[in-house]
């Protein structure tokens, strides 16, 4: 893909995310991590190549179908993109409102989820009054409240200290355990190594894959909140993973 | 004393998705209110004019004039008196009276002056009052005159009537035109404000969009905001127009503002649909603008 008339940011990228997998997306600043995520959450269209999302070819999907695909993808934006005029509670409720749910159906879930990410005391706080770590967790809560099949996070530990980064990583691992496919863009090498998860590395517009080597803290190591406190714990089966979460970005061909 | 602890969760209602933008909204409020005020005044004026016109038309329709040509050896007054007698018996005529010479002269004096009046053959006229429910036609009157052996011309004022009716129709069309122009202006203003609002709230719109909101959902957000605003502004404009109309009526005394613009107390309620119409126009404009802009996004 490219922006305007500039040279191509991504040119040789082909990969598939298996349902329920956990990957890091690494690469130097400016390598195109955010751009790749934008392609997946359908904020951009590729200038060439093919993207398949949950078994649907994105290019041929009708405009009316795209919102429903987007609802299955939770996104933690690099700059959070919280709505500053809405409380933490309203921010998290947003995707559910968009999905057409009634307040009575999600009121308790939203409160529980906010408690799960450690914001139980800040339900009615406005985003501008939150700290960087709190905003980050609020953004994560909003991204997962609709139980997406795929969770994308862009530098979710970029603005927080090491302690908070580990807490956030634990949240993602827990979500992944509940069935969500996770892809995290990060240049925090230490965090990536610690997680031991497989890595997709971007360099010069090309993507290479490295299998994760289990190191100091393997997958099971982070001890998240007890399961029965998590809102999704008893509803794992509801994650619909029947169809493949699949991306076949093939930018290797000549430009059309 | 025990105070029940209030649970904010129980009271929680989804907050409006668009932040308030007091400054922009105030100007928009003002402009829409002014437009509604003008539209309402036009409506009230049109009603008054229509009422005046139909009053005149009723008067004209209720009258006819017959000009009698006396036969040889008969004075004009006798001929006129005979004609009046014949015409009074016609069905659809309530009253027929010969116009006295003095009266006819009085009618002509302002136009011709004293000097020429004596030399002038004054036409011999019979004024006929017609039954407004079933007026006799000119042909009926003619037939009655011929039967009585009187020579004369019947003028049922049809030409005047046509003129008045044409004028009333024109007033109606002008009022309608003013309404359409004002509504279009209101729509354009709201479309403009929607575009500005969407630009100002691009962050919000993008987040909604990326969170899987359909265009319809986003359009509804703007449509509701601007529809509600226009409803309020429409009410303000309509109330202002009512106030002006009532002042005119009170100043004009019991018979309404003037005979030219008679208004009844009830006429002012004609502006009551204004808030709803304003809300509809604004909501439609906001909706179409939002949908068009969103479609241009990809
Ligand atoms: N909206 C944009 N318009 C033009 N160029 C952009 C835009 N966003 C990113 N780029 C360019 O694309 C390249 C990749 O950026 P990005 O995907 O943000 O990289 P990363 O997230 O890995 O730091 C950079 O050279 C950047 O300047
Ligand atoms: Mg980036």
Structural overview:
- The complex is a heterodimer of chains A (256) and B (298).
- In chain A, helix 3 packs across helix 4 (103-116) and helix 3 (88-98) packs parallel to helix 5.
- Chain A has 256 residues and is an alpha/beta fold.
- In chain A, the strands form 2 sheets. Chain A has a 6-stranded mixed sheet with strand order 4-5-6-1-7-8, sandwiched between helices. In chain A, strands 2-3 form a two-stranded antiparallel sheet.
- Chain A folds into 2 domains: 1-72 and 148-256, Rossmann fold (3-Layer(aba) Sandwich), CATH 3.40.50.300; 82-147, no CATH class.
- Chain A contains 7 helices and 8 strands, in the order E-H-E-E-H-E-H-H-H-E-H-E-H-E-E.
- By secondary structure, chain B is an alpha+beta fold.
- Chain B has a 4-stranded antiparallel sheet.
- Classes of the chains: A alpha/beta (256), B alpha+beta (298).
- The A-B interface holds A 41-43, 45, 63-64, 67-71, 75, 81, 83-87, 89-90, 93-95, 97-99, 103, 107, 111, 123-124, 146 and B 8-9, 12-15, 17, 19-20, 203-204, 206-208, 210-214, 217, 295, 298.
- The complex binds adenosine-5'-diphosphate (ADP) and magnesium ion (MG).
- Residues 3, 9, 27, 29-35 of chain A line the site of adenosine-5'-diphosphate (ADP).
Write the layout of secondary structure elements.
The complex is a heterodimer of chains A (256) and B (298).
Chain A: E1 22-26, H1 33-40, E2 52-53, E3 56-57, H2 66-70, E4 73-76, H3 88-98, H4 103-116, H5 132-144, E5 150-154, H6 162-177, E6 181-185, H7 189-195, E7 199-203, E8 206-210
Parallel strand pairs in A: 1-6, 1-7, 4-5, 5-6
Antiparallel strand pairs in A: 2-3, 7-8
Chain B: H1 8-11, H2 22-61, E1 63-69, H3 76-88, E2 93-98, H4 101-112, H5 114-117, E3 124-130, H6 138-147, E4 151-155, H7 158-200, H8 202-210, H9 215-251, H10 274-295
Antiparallel strand pairs in B: 1-3, 1-4, 2-3
Helix pairs in contact in B: 2-7, 2-9, 7-10, 9-10
